[in-house]
Fold these 2 entries.
Entry 1:
Amino acid sequence: MLLLEFQSFLLDGLLNTLFLSSVMIAGGTFFAVIFAAGLSAQSAWLRGPVYGLVECLRDIPLMVTVLMVYFVLPHAGLSFNPFWSSALSVSVWGGANGAHIIRAGLLSVPSGQREAALSSGLRGWKGLFLVIVPQAMPVILPPYVSLVTSLTQASSLGAVLGVNELLRSAQILIEQTTIARGGSPAYLVYGSILVVYFALCWSISALGAKLERHFAKPYQRTNGKTGLARPAVALQISTT
Amino acid sequence: MDFAYILDALPDLMTGLKMTLIVSFLAIVLSCLIGLLGAVLRTGGIKPLQYAVTAYVEFIRGTPYLVQIFFIFYGLPSLGLRFSIFWSGVIALTAWASAFQIENFRAGLAAVGRGMHDASASLGLKRWQHSIFIILPLATRAALPSAMNTIVATVKNSAYLQAIGLVELTFVAVDRIAYDFRAIEMFASICVIYLICVFTISGFGYMVERRLSRPFGGR
């Protein structure tokens, strides 16, 4: 069977996909935190531009962002190879979507909690990480997990720029076997990598659900209100 | 930034925009219809159909859109289903958007309370009258904000179709860059065009939402 024959080739692609998605998830989280900080800044001079940038990134198609970073940055003297170029563009896009998730989560914690933290002597970062963030987690996590699956799926955009990830490997495999043996195995190869991606995203969701349960637990027992606030409609991310 | 060049490229970009809008429009109309049908099937109580629709939604949402496009354009012909680039694009975009619209309308249907059923039964409405005159408007109203999001996302995701060579806005821009190397001008213009499209649609959606969110009946 074709897939078994080129097993190691496709496996290499899968490993690259895993690496690329990890970079995108890490980068996306990094930008999300930065943008979220910018969105909740005191100074309107900082908040305005960050808000504009985040809105633009969310409203411009991801495909365009990916191509734009690849084609435009060299004009500014910044040359990346396809791997880092796609990683950067998808990370920034993920950051723009993640920023709103994080901000909404932090805002969902009643302001009394912040005051309580202050009165217990937990100022600034300490109060944020020990009091606010744990309570914001149940609100942040569900949409954040779906963002992570979106980022994993977006790693397939690397194929457009020529990164050797799973989709690109599949394309090469199809081209080569079509030339060498005649008859395109496209439905078989694309069909199987669809299944691989599905399994990958499904595992991420399952892991996320576990994490959600972990964070939902303690608050559920004492006070259902703070622990289980969830957005009514799951946040929708445009790529997937 | 060379505005003369942008002006020169504008006719090309407009033909691209036209294609983007046509493909998106077809996909939006089809996906809303399929979404409504799918939502009804998913809540309809026929178990095998329910599972089938759920599986479809989960599969589309769990796989990369780009791979779906390639599967439809390159994979289906070897199974005997050959479509042109245009129709492959419409099918891929519709298949993707439908999964999200099914979810949106399902949430909309779920938002209509059981009390409505008793109320229309007591008014002597027939089952079909109840579905069409009571449930449908209420469910549409509840589903509208998220359905609008999906509609905007449909227009944005039409950009992916450049990967199979559909001559839409992004394809035109990338094609011209390959000849003239004016990446900054081209991307600036298509970004502006996409932003205008997105803002127009979401503005329109916001207007409809405001109009519909007035309570029905009594004034």
Entry 2:
Amino acid sequence: MARLTFRGGVHPPRRKSETQTLAITELPLPDQLIWPLEVPPGTRFLPVVQKGDRIRAGQIVARTADGFPLHASASGTIAAIGPRPYPGGPEARSLVLRVSEETGVPDGPGAAGRRETEHGHESFLEKPAEELRRRVLEAGVTDTAAGAGFPEGRPNPTANAFPSGPRVPNHTVVVNAMESEPSLASDHRLLVERSAEIVLGLRLTMRITGCRKGMIAVPSDNRGPLRSLRKAVRRLRSVSILYLDPKYPGHNETALLASLGLRTASSGSNPGGKKGVHVQSVTATLAVTDAVTRDLPQIRRVITVAGNGIRNPRNLSVPLGTPISACVSACGGYVSDKVLLIHGGPMAGVALSSDAAPVTAWTTGLTVLDGRDQPVLPETACIRCGRCSDCCPAGLAPYRIEAFLRSGREDLARLEGIASCIRCGSCTYICPAGRPLVRIFHPVPASGREA
Amino acid sequence: MTTGNVRFLTGHFPFIRDNDSVRKMMWTTAAALAPLAAASVWTYGLRAAWFIVSAVTAACAAEWAAQGLRRRQVMAPPSDGSAFLTGLLLSLILPLQAPPWMPATGAVLAVGLGKQVFGGLGRNPLNPALCGRFLLMLAFPAAFASDWLAPDGLTAASPLIRWRAAHTVLMRPESQSADRIADATMTLSRLIETLPGRFVAHPGSCPAETSALLILFGAGILLYRRVIGWKIPIAGLLSSVLLFWAFGGTDGAFSGDPLLFLPNGAFLFMLFFMATDPVTSPVRPIDRWLFGAGFGSLTVLLRLWGPWPEGAGIALLFINAIHALLSRRKPTRPRSNPDHSRGMP
């Protein structure tokens, strides 16, 4: 059988040999939590609490206009409602919580000391799909733009999570554990440590979306540690594990679907929905289990903090809203006074200009690179070697688009299909002339208070 | 250092890059040519050495001067390796009987008129070294009279010329004397018999033809290091072998022996080292197949029916030009494009 993969892609160094072996550890509660209300762009949560209110962990503190909830990830007092830095841009309106110490948090996804899913949990699969869907939505489960770090992610994830009326009836749920960004290993660790719950979450999602098949897509290069996952699916006829070529950007939904032989008509939001495939991140799958079996809202997530700029790389389970600086401290701090702090992975992450921004549901990890050895790349002439075209997962010709954009011909760039660009950065990674292709295609403003 | 004095660098993804560069590609190609160049010096002595040194020096000087004239940031001349490579390629495809001033002149023409007038690296429509060679050929046709300078200094016909002469005779046996026909048949069988030896050391009319083995060795390096792709060479080999097999024989269709075609002349050299030049070759897979096949078949056609025994150079220039004209064409069809797919389910 041919290897399951998509056309194009690149092979950046995986850098996972260390991070994949680090067990998930729980980050202690920080003094302060920040919950951005306008993240990702296009979403707008309206607070239902006021400054000075005392709140309990798990309580709903904000809702979108269509009722999607945001839960408190710890107990404390609302200290402020106002603009704060967030990982996707300079500032966003946020709720700021002063954490009070006496109240504990319910343990969310990734909490330590997790018990195996008991047989009793199978009974949840008998519940009507509508009830399950309601529970999941009430728990604020959002799909985290599967393995993202992609600067804009999905415009409105809440609209795509569990669409009630898909245009094509769903037939398959795919759990996206491809995690093709270098260093990042949180999905891998979750598959190792909490496989039974992930499989249950997948089966619950299948029930909710009316799918008969479930798949877990994992990279094929490190199968050994997934023994427990294999055991968990062994007796299930409807669920299978897919081992896909571990190349970048395999975690991208368009690339993932292409690996399964499905051409998507769009690289915009929810391309899978149009093919009857519901693609879901590992984090969201676990959140489904927690929401259904324990009425636990999505208030924590697991992130990898890695890179040569951090002293002790770790896989951390953090309450949503934790300032990035707290995660960095937990990892021993920076190795130098000049670092590149990246929200997401080094291939498609966003450089942050401060570590005051919080961890959100869309934070897959943090990559810290030592600023002292960031090479200054000379940009030389394009020699039309075509490597960018060869590796473009969307089948574009980046060198042509670049030439058009540089000469001000946006119309021609559109004809070349720039709208299909999935912003994976592969073309720029591979370019031997060091040309900043993807920056020319998508001049994303640097995040933070950049002058 | 957890808080306080940490400086956060800004930038745009991706934050890591592949460590290949244009410069490395150029120097790798030059290194892949080195065994062949060394063999040509060993075979032809100081003459070949002078060709190489003077052409490379002149090409680098011309590049440096042109960059200065165009007020581009002047780099140390051979830094990106492209001018060095142009000079080297040119010196290898010049006929050995050319006068000693010719390689340098050709190199200046190659870099100046072949590349810099179009805007420098990456913008030339034709292969600069080939441009240099053919500008020389137009200006000084006498030096390109197709005689072979044997290592011993005597003039003798190269295998390609002998094949062509024999082929011409055998194609019209009715108007030839029996002696000439016997001679021609003999020549062809001799060419086949001597092939194993000529494959290793195979003196031709220019240094590039010194050894097919070393050409393949260099090509192997380039393919292994992924400096060149395999589509153009494969397409070129297949198309030329098939076409020669079909039309290159003297006993009607499908009697041609590709061994009389492939190792002769500069075809292999140009296929691996010049047709694969990224600047003047296409990008899309289908275009690469067509480009290689076009080069291979045109070379066969020119060798069989063209005015000169060697057709590889002209064929490549021609295919370069066609590609340069056609590459402005239709936009790339993306694999997934919302604009193209309206109305799809």
